[in-house]
């Protein structure tokens, strides 16, 4: 008996975790096996979601519980779910929590699994995406990316909201779909997913600028979608309903700005802490400590933002972007390689876990609310909103860009708007009422549709549109002209460059001009305190130079590619790392082999 | 309101995790800073526990709740804790679980934190310990290690049990301390902790054989202590009480053997799966996949054992030992380095988290039961039992060993019996009654005492005993004679060698003689199926040779050390990895630098 009870306790967590681990293993092996047979169409996210579905089905078949209570059931449509059994958690006399198997079938938003999933795996995924972004390309395309991410997401949200509002009028009137609900769904659906988009792009190796536009947009529009969702919720809670209320709208707008700026600053603060810590201490002598501190501080940016009620994803994204720009320059090469590999593993396993879990919930969650009209409306409006977002914005951007975004790129961008973890995260927060559960179910179905159908069709689509694939991520020279000419006027870029090069770099890293020169006389004390404590060693000098070269004319890269056999392997490796590897998480790094070959020379 | 509720939900996990992360960061930085100032006395475990104490104190001062209910309070000693408030978990009308802040103050055993801690961090710590064990040294000292671990732990358990039973007779008779309770405490206290012992040993770099004896014992006696605890619990539940019941005893003994063998086999099964997977597929072409699969399968050994009611620690330990012996030979060098670094980070962060948590619980848990007699009895009996264990067994072992275990080693081994995570894990399982809570509190105090007092005094003690410290972990030649001569007769080692070399190696790896030769004619089909599918490449051939050399006369090592500048860096690196690095988790690996220097030649 006692041993049985003991076993029961351990089972609580060990068994589901074991199931999840097995699922991840099967996913990894089958994707890898399928890819070996040249099935280019499979992607990890889709396969993980498929196995998740199977697991959910199995669990549901084994534990068939009719006695589910779905909250907010005001209609009599789903009668079988309307029976007793209110408490999903039993409390034993001693106050122990006994996790009921059915616990998250009707309330996914509060469970252990989700909390672990989102706090443990989501930050490294987003961080990895931002951290491995090709900085130079990103800055070159920054204007376009920001336009798509900000204006595009807002257009998309409005467009889906309006469409869905129209569709809900076609539905039986028992459902109380307000405009705010439709806008909420619009905001949720506007978040294209960096995880799946990244998986897709790095598998197919599309054109680098298309890659940057799509990935940059998907990373940044998460932030916008999250903040929009918050803002709409804030607006809703003012009980404004359908009548336009300027106060509530202003409140929502202030909230939008506050969350965005707060999260951005929080991410930046953690970068500054990491950069100063790695600059002024000798942490770089111990790569294990360096890696741990870097990892913990980057993760903290997410956790602290969530704890403050800000957006963790936005914070960790900005943290990743700035860490890759500044802190990386203070790290040892060993530490840099370790950090990259650590985040790579987390990113890989996290992607599989999150998509597997989404598939699982799709069949396990028993309080789904399928509304065929709403679903077909969603299907249509998702494409429509993306067209309304990409085509006009690309037209406007092309007016300013010397190097236009081709039409075929625009077509593909409409196609490649996969939805994923962030949409799920936003939808799962509220499943109390019938309306929110309709939104949740539809979101899950849309995620499944975009991942399976659009993700699989991406490869044939690329061929049809005649967009070149299989591009070497390090191939930089040929479309050189494209990246220098952006739509941004010189003054903005000049301002950014001087802030970055003259002040941020010298304060946070060992690179850039000495602070005593760039700062005015009055800040002499500040300049002396933050000046680099060590004389620049050869390696660092080289690093800074390469970095500087990359930001202007890509000299470092060209040089090293022309003379790769002459240059020593160490600097080559550093550069690869600085280059961000273009987010190709699955590409193997072979520092050993590389150095081995140069040894034989 | 809604946004407040949203925030509330997110706070649930993000805030405590953020506190934990901050705690870990502060620990890392202060230990590292203290070590820079040559304070050799500090260890991560102690500092983490100290900061955990501070956090626990803070939390307790902020949330002062008198309304605690400690289960099983039959006496009136702690009146203030005897007030109402039974349910620690509030259920909202919709069935949401709202984690009350006080939840784990009286019931630590069931909480989120502990489950995550033990399922996430304990397996990598134990795995890392076993995986990085110097295999050759371990096998050379296997007999002694097994004697200490098995006979020693049983002696220790009996001895503490008997002592404590004597001490409980001195206590006021209201407490119902049975002999089985005392034996349970004995079993809990017998588990010397690999995490803290490893930390201590690698910081001080003691003599390699002393290292092996202490670390090997601490890893293996966990297994014995866990199984003993289970067995005693099984025996107790038979209601045998004080009367010796042969049936219950037999049952407990069968249980002991069953759990031990079951866990061992489970660990082995996962190694076989990993080895065959890495041998017969081309996983080694993608280091990220290789690392992920290896990591997940190794972790699975723990989870599946826990899910089956076996001992996860034992399973993951055997898995680590066998993975390091067989699977490692199938991995790519890149994958091998990644796996090592991944487990290193997990081990490092896990150690800090677990000890930090122990300190936290020590002050946060409000249902402590301090029994001065019991505590002082424990203090005495812990030293006494260790003396009864080490001295007689060393005497017996020295009869068989050609190379004796010196007296000073024996003194230090008594001293270095630190307790930690495993003891905590065993004690925290049961805190329902006053007796079990007395045991829990005493265990926590003993862990604190051994970590702080003994851990800090280890360095002066070593100097006093004149045991050499600062030994280079790769220094193998000089005490060569010591390791060949063990107390094991040749036949046993011969049998093991032939099983290992003739059958296991060829089946699981690309090394060893072809199976078609070693297996009898009748197993021809089996031999053909499991034969290495690829012709041995040069690198592998070399790897197997080095490995073979290491097992017999350490030729590979000597050769590479004499001619390190001539041999190419790749094989050198592989060897380092094979050598297991002696569990020096904190020692930086500089493959880049090493290859850089050889490039310049």
Automatic annotation (TrEMBL), chains A, B:
<dbReference type="InterPro" id="IPR004709">
    <property type="entry name" value="NaH_exchanger"/>
</dbReference>
<comment type="similarity">
    <text>Belongs to the monovalent cation:proton antiporter 1 (CPA1) transporter (TC 2.A.36) family.</text>
</comment>
<dbReference type="Pfam" id="PF00999">
    <property type="entry name" value="Na_H_Exchanger"/>
</dbReference>
<feature type="transmembrane region" description="Helical">
    <location>
        <begin position="12"/>
        <end position="33"/>
    </location>
</feature>
<feature type="transmembrane region" description="Helical">
    <location>
        <begin position="374"/>
        <end position="397"/>
    </location>
</feature>
<keyword id="KW-0915">Sodium</keyword>
<keyword id="KW-0406">Ion transport</keyword>
<dbReference type="GO" id="GO:0015385">
    <property type="term" value="F:sodium:proton antiporter activity"/>
</dbReference>
<dbReference type="InterPro" id="IPR006153">
    <property type="entry name" value="Cation/H_exchanger_TM"/>
</dbReference>
<dbReference type="GO" id="GO:0098719">
    <property type="term" value="P:sodium ion import across plasma membrane"/>
</dbReference>
<keyword id="KW-0812">Transmembrane</keyword>
<feature type="transmembrane region" description="Helical">
    <location>
        <begin position="45"/>
        <end position="63"/>
    </location>
</feature>
<feature type="compositionally biased region" description="Low complexity">
    <location>
        <begin position="559"/>
        <end position="568"/>
    </location>
</feature>
<protein>
    <recommendedName>
        <fullName>Sodium/hydrogen exchanger</fullName>
    </recommendedName>
</protein>
<keyword id="KW-0967">Endosome</keyword>
<feature type="transmembrane region" description="Helical">
    <location>
        <begin position="213"/>
        <end position="236"/>
    </location>
</feature>
<feature type="transmembrane region" description="Helical">
    <location>
        <begin position="439"/>
        <end position="458"/>
    </location>
</feature>
<dbReference type="GO" id="GO:0005886">
    <property type="term" value="C:plasma membrane"/>
</dbReference>
<feature type="transmembrane region" description="Helical">
    <location>
        <begin position="342"/>
        <end position="362"/>
    </location>
</feature>
<keyword id="KW-1133">Transmembrane helix</keyword>
<keyword id="KW-0050">Antiport</keyword>
<keyword id="KW-1003">Cell membrane</keyword>
<feature type="region of interest" description="Disordered">
    <location>
        <begin position="547"/>
        <end position="601"/>
    </location>
</feature>
<dbReference type="GO" id="GO:0051453">
    <property type="term" value="P:regulation of intracellular pH"/>
</dbReference>
<keyword id="KW-0739">Sodium transport</keyword>
<dbReference type="GO" id="GO:0055038">
    <property type="term" value="C:recycling endosome membrane"/>
</dbReference>
<feature type="transmembrane region" description="Helical">
    <location>
        <begin position="112"/>
        <end position="133"/>
    </location>
</feature>
<keyword id="KW-0472">Membrane</keyword>
<feature type="transmembrane region" description="Helical">
    <location>
        <begin position="145"/>
        <end position="165"/>
    </location>
</feature>
<keyword id="KW-0813">Transport</keyword>
<feature type="transmembrane region" description="Helical">
    <location>
        <begin position="248"/>
        <end position="273"/>
    </location>
</feature>
<dbReference type="InterPro" id="IPR002090">
    <property type="entry name" value="NHE-6/7/9"/>
</dbReference>
<dbReference type="InterPro" id="IPR018422">
    <property type="entry name" value="Cation/H_exchanger_CPA1"/>
</dbReference>
<dbReference type="GO" id="GO:0015386">
    <property type="term" value="F:potassium:proton antiporter activity"/>
</dbReference>
<feature type="transmembrane region" description="Helical">
    <location>
        <begin position="177"/>
        <end position="201"/>
    </location>
</feature>
<feature type="domain" description="Cation/H+ exchanger transmembrane">
    <location>
        <begin position="42"/>
        <end position="463"/>
    </location>
</feature>
């Amino acid at each position: 008996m006692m041993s049985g009870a003991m076993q029961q306790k351990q089972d609580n967590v060990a068994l589901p975790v074991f199931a999840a681990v097995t699922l991840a293993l099967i996913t990894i092996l089958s994707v890898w096996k399928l890819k070996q047979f040249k099935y280019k169409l499979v992607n990890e996210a889709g396969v993980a979601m498929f196995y998740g579905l199977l697991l959910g089905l199995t669990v549901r078949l084994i534990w068939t519980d009719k006695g589910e209570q779905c909250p907010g059931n005001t209609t009599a449509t789903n009668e079988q779910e309307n029976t007793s059994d209110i408490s999903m958690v039993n409390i034993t006399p001693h106050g122990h929590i006994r996790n009921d198997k059915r616990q998250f079938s009707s309330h996914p938003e509060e469970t252990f699994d989700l909390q672990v999933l989102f706090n443990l795996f989501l930050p490294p995924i987003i961080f990895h995406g931002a951290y491995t972004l090709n900085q130079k390309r990103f800055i070159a395309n920054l204007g376009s990316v920001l336009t798509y991410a900000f204006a595009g997401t807002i257009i998309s949200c409005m467009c889906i909201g309006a469409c869905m509002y129209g569709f809900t009028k076609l539905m039986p009137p028992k459902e109380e779909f307000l405009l705010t609900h439709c806008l909420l769904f619009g905001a949720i659906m506007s978040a294209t997913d960096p995880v799946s988009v990244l998986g897709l792009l790095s598998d197919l190796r599309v054109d680098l600028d298309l890659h940057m536009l799509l990935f940059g947009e998907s990373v940044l529009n998460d932030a916008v979608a999250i903040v929009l969702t918050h803002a709409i919720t804030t607006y809703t809670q003012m009980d404004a309903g359908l009548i336009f209320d300027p106060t509530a709208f202003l409140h929502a707008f202030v909230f939008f700005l506050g969350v965005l700026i707060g999260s951005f600053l929080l991410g930046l603060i953690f970068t500054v802490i990491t950069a100063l810590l790695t600059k002024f201490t000798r942490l770089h002598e111990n790569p294990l400590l360096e890696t741990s501190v870097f990892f913990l501080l980057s993760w903290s940016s997410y956790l602290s933002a969530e704890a403050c009620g800000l957006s963790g994803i936005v914070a960790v994204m900005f943290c990743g972007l700035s860490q890759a720009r500044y802190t990386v320059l203070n790290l040892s090469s060993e530490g840099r390689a370790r950090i990259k590999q650590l985040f790579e593993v987390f990113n890989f396993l996290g992607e599989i876990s999150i998509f597997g879990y989404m598939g699982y919930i799709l069949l396990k969650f028993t309080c789904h609310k399928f509304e065929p009209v709403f679903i077909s409306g969603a299907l249509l409006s998702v494409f429509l909103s993306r067209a309304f977002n990409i085509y006009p914005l690309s037209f406007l951007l092309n007016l300013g860009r010397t190097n236009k975004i081709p039409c075929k790129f625009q077509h593909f961008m409409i196609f490649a708007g996969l939805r994923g973890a962030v949409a799920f995260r936003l939808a799962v927060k509220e499943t109390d009422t019938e309306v929110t559960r309709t939104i949740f179910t539809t979101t899950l179905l849309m995620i499944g549709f975009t991942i399976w159908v659009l993700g699989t069709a991406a490869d044939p689509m690329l061929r049809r549109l005649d967009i070149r694939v299989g591009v070497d991520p390090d191939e930089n020279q040929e479309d050189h002209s494209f990246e220098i000419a952006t739509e941004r006027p010189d003054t903005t870029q000049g301002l950014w460059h001087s802030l970055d090069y003259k002040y941020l770099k010298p304060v946070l890293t060992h690179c850039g001009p000495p602070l005593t020169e760039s700062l005015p006389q009055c800040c002499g004390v500040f300049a002396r305190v933050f000046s680099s404590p060590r004389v620049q060693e050869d390696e660092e000098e080289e690093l800074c130079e390469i970095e500087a070269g990359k930001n202007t004319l890509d000299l470092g890269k060209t040089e090293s590619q022309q003379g790769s056999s002459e240059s020593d392997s160490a600097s080559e490796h550093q550069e690869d790392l600085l280059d961000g590897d273009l987010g190709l998480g699955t590409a193997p790094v072979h520092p050993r082999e590389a150095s081995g070959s140069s040894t034989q020379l």
